[in-house]
């Protein structure tokens, strides 16, 4: 409390902080053309954090043939363990890049979400299967960056 001309003035101070986290994850799939024809259904990447020393864990769910549109591949970013209650919101953003072994970008997508994040986010028709097969050749390696 300070005094101004012998008058007491009450002072208050509030601080608001926002924590931001950025993390880059790379998933490489060798022999993509063989792998994509042999696997059935959704395939999951290893689990990765949302940032260094962050407890929130994510994984990519990739379908070489989308269960909704088989002519397309699908890709989703999912929480490993739901962390929210029904009425809570989670703000997140993600940039997804598909590349070939030379680092050439095949496709780039991004999103930001202010919705509940208990499920995940993604694209059921990310890219046509045939276009993806052609784009990864001749090295036959798909690189997914998140």
Q: How does the SSE layout of this entry go?
A:
Blueprint: E1 2-4, E2 7-9, E3 26-29, H1 32-38, E4 43-44, E5 48-49, E6 57-63, E7 72-79, E8 92-99, E9 105-113, E10 120-128, H2 129-136, E11 142-145
Describe the 3D structure:
Residues 22-146 form the MATH domain. This is (northern house mosquito) hypothetical protein. InterPro entries: MATH/TRAF_dom (IPR002083), TRAF-like (IPR008974). The chain is elongated and about 85 Å long. Strands 4, 5, 6, 7 and 10 form a five-stranded antiparallel sheet that branches. It has a single domain (23-145), classed as Sandwich (Apoptosis, Tumor Necrosis Factor Receptor Associated Protein 2, Chain A), CATH 2.60.210. By secondary structure, it is mainly beta. Helices cover 10% and strands 40% of the residues. The mean pLDDT is 83. Strand 6 and strand 7 (72-79) form a beta hairpin.
- Rg over C-alpha atoms, rounded to the nearest angstrom: 22 Å
CATH architectural type: Sandwich
What is the name of the CATH superfamily? Answer: Apoptosis, Tumor Necrosis Factor Receptor Associated Protein 2, Chain A
**Describe the biggest sheet?**
5 strands, antiparallel
**What is the CATH fold-level name?**
Apoptosis, Tumor Necrosis Factor Receptor Associated Protein 2, Chain A
In short:
It is built from two helices and eleven strands; from the N terminus they run E-E-E-H-E-E-E-E-E-E-E-H-E. It has 146 residues and is mainly beta.
